[in-house]
Write a structure and sequence with these properties.
The structure holds two protein chains of two kinds. By secondary structure, chain A is α/β, with parallel strands linked by helices. Chain A has ten helices and eleven strands. Chain A has an eight-stranded parallel barrel, surrounded by seven helices. Chain B is globular. The chains are: A alpha/beta, B alpha/beta.
């Protein structure tokens, strides 16, 4: 049986991780490669690096980081942030990234999904969607949830799948940062409607929240940042408890 | 952190190939992660671009990602097909590099190398079994073989693929279940292949690469 995946997400700025790193045994908490290696040793199934760099040098910095990660890390990883064209994706793929994640660029230019899927295969393309509830509707938001669009999130996800998204990373802005649990109702609606893997994001605060999201929505993976970075949830403990709930996970025995 | 290797070669220049592992290059797919894994493991490797290059190495890897039909076209254009078919040294196909070794792929309705007289087929897409089959799945060893030495039966490996190689007791070295039981690994004489990505499959993936380097 295919395992449910646990994915820590690292925010990277100018080649350094920027928030919430609280491991006691790290020499350099800002070094994304050291942090990534630590997570891979703990049993993380995959990693997402989100580039929040705003400078012109970003692509070069990111390519160097991706190469360093690929040299050291023996699990798959995804790069997101600032990918606007085929050339960006091509450079990251050649540097050893397994997947790229596109968000605002796909909303502004949906054909980018088709182009990337055609150039590299659907398995290479994650479409990240930030959503916020407004009344009865879930609407797509940009720039980390700050800018609202008029796009209906559910319809946009179906369109992204039709265009060639290989995976959906769905972040609920209403839940993100609350540590109150994932948006299981909307995640289930999305997961039931698409035939590509769905990664749940936003709201993880406890181990029970991970149990809930897998049991209630059957999503393929769950992503979180701060609960892992601050050591509030340790991945081996999380996986042991998921396993006790008959949720299939990959266990690491060192 | 103590175990994280530092100062890995940065320019990706292969060591001289004598006695090492030759990666068959035919224009299909990125191999950065594969060569990075070989460097971490201390396995000497080099590149095979032409028939003459084969003499330098004592074993080979056929990598591959993307479209199997397109990969077979590129392999044909490389002029290496006949040489590969007659190889006597240990040869490991990975992912699409595995599918190339079968008789035929439904991806592009393409004739393949036919080293294994079995078929590469498309997964049936469903809500329960999403396609591509993406993630970590259990690999069950059907036959004892040095390729899986020191790897516990049922260990998880990382898969990303929409097409699979049918299960066949004559050739299936290890199987995985995903809507159907398929070949996670096949073996015939000196030819080995794996559908998963050992270079992305944690320590057991690295163990498999080490095992192959010792076959």
């Amino acid at each position: 049986m295919l395992s449910k995946r646990i994915i820590p997400c690292l925010d990277v700025k100018d080649g350094r991780t920027v928030k919430g790193i609280n491991f006691v045994d790290l020499r350099d908490a800002g070094d994304p490669v050291e942090l990534a290696w630590n997570y891979s040793q703990q049993g993380a199934d995959e990693l997402v690096f989100l580039d929040i760099t705003a400078t012109h040098e970003r692509r070069k910095t990111m390519v160097e980081l991706v190469k360093s990660v690929a040299r050291q890390i023996n699990i798959p990883f995804t790069i997101g942030g600032g990918i606007n064209e085929i050339a960006d994706a091509d450079a990251l793929l050649n540097a050893g990234a397994d997947k790229i994640s596109i968000n605002s660029a796909a909303v502004r230019n949906p054909a980018l999904i088709d182009e990337l899927a055609k150039a590299f295969g659907v398995q290479f393309v994650i479409v990240a969607v930030d959503t916020r509830r407004l009344g009865e509707q879930n609407l797509v938001h940009l720039n980390g949830g700050r800018i609202a669009t008029e796009k209906d999130t559910f319809e946009w996800i179906l369109e992204a799948e039709r265009r060639g998204a290989g995976e959906i990373l769905l972040t609920s802005m209403d839940h993100d940062g609350t540590k109150g649990g994932f948006d299981n109702v909307f995640l289930k609606k999305v997961n039931d409607a698409v035939h590509i893997p769905v990664i749940a994001s936003g709201g993880a605060g406890s181990v029970q929240h991970f149990v809930d999201v897998f049991e209630k929505t059957n999503v393929d993976a769950a992503l979180a940042a701060s609960v892992f970075h601050y050591g509030e949830i340790l991945i081996p403990d999380l996986k042991a408890i998921l396993s006790r709930h008959q949720i299939e996970v990959r266990q690491i025995f060192n | 952190m103590a175990d994280m290797k530092q100062n890995v070669t940065t320019d990706n220049t292969p060591p001289s190939g004598a006695g090492g592992l030759g990666i068959i290059r035919y224009g299909a797919g990125n191999i950065f992660s594969l060569t990075a894994a070989l460097e971490r493991l201390g396995i000497a490797y080099g590149m095979v671009h032409s028939e003459a290059d084969f003499e330098q190495f004592d074993r080979f890897i056929i990598p591959g990602v993307g479209h199997a039909g397109a990969a077979m076209n590129k392999l044909t254009q490389s002029g290496l097909v006949n040489k590969i078919k007659t190889l006597q040294k240990p040869t490991l196909g990975i992912c699409v590099g595995m599918q190339l070794l079968t008789a035929h792929s439904e991806e592009g309705d393409a004739e393949m190398l036919n080293i294994f007289p079995i078929q590469t087929k498309k997964f049936t897409d469903s809500a329960e079994y999403k396609v591509p089959h993406t993630g970590w799945n259990r690999v069950n060893q059907e036959i004892a073989n040095p390729l899986f030495a020191n790897i516990p039966n049922g260990s998880h490996f990382y898969f990303v693929h929409s097409y699979f190689i049918e299960f066949n007791p004559a050739y299936t070295l290890a199987s995985t279940d995903y809507s159907t039981k398929f070949s996670a690994s096949i073996w015939k004489d000196n030819f080995y292949a794996v559908q998963f990505h050992p270079e992305k499959s944690g320590k057991y993936g690295e163990q498999l690469l080490t095992n192959f380097s010792n076959i």
